[in-house]
Amino acid sequence: MSPAPAAVPPVAVPVHKIRVILADDHPVVRDGLAAILNRQPDMEVVAEAADGEEATELYDRLQPDVMVLDLRMPKRDGVAVVEMVLAAHPHARLLIMTTYDGDEDIFRCLSQGAKGYMLKDAPRTEILAAIRAVSEDRPYASSSVASKALQRMAKPSLTQRELGVLQLLAEGRSNKDIARRLSITEGTAKTHVKAILTKLDAISRTEAVAVAHKRGLVRL
Amino acid sequence: MSPAPAAVPPVAVPVHKIRVILADDHPVVRDGLAAILNRQPDMEVVAEAADGEEATELYDRLQPDVMVLDLRMPKRDGVAVVEMVLAAHPHARLLIMTTYDGDEDIFRCLSQGAKGYMLKDAPRTEILAAIRAVSEDRPYASSSVASKALQRMAKPSLTQRELGVLQLLAEGRSNKDIARRLSITEGTAKTHVKAILTKLDAISRTEAVAVAHKRGLVRL
DNA sequence: TCCCGCCTCTCTCAAAAGGAGTAGATCCAC
DNA sequence: GTGGATCTACTCCTTTTGAGAGAGGCGGGA
Question: How far is residue A122's CA from residue A131's CA, in Å, rounded to a whole number?
Answer without folding.
Answer: 12
